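User: Show me a protein chain along with its predicted structure.
Assistant: Here is one chain, sequence first, then structure tokens.
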Amino acid sequence: MKDDRKTTEIPSFLKGEDNSNEQTMEIEVVPEPVRKKDSIEIKNKPKKSSQEMIISFLLFAVLTVILVIAGINIAGFFMNNSGSAAEAEPTSSPTVEPTELPGFTPTPEPVETPVVTTNGQGSLSVLVDQITIRNSPSLNGEAMGTVYSGQSYTVYDVQQADGYTWYEIDEVNGGWIASDGSWVSYTSN
């Protein structure tokens, strides 16, 4: 067998000695054995069929799409809540029909209209939050009280005045309420 050992001289400054007494030291260099690239072998590993590979790919693709959509939704949530109104999607808000304020009856410009009496009797239901009761079928009539949404009344007389239909709901005291056609639901007898 061949001796593969090599001799190398160690410099004196590494030995901590002065240069006058040089020594040599032998270092044995042994070549490393060649290893296989994959030192672990897996025996009898079944190969995936093309159907299994397609299913794996489709599952991966679906999960990727789900994660991308979730990421977009999360990013959109934080962007919409950061005060950036320019990028936020418009949202629809319910339309609120104007109603009368407490104790307020709309007063359009007075129009000279003749008072027409129909002497009709019937019933009505209030459809808006509230309507002011007046002592005469006129915007100039004195306020006597208020009727509220959902209440029903017997109608003793119906008249047209000041651009409104007036309904007498209190025959004894002369209580009248006005409607523009959408404030009450009237049914004649």
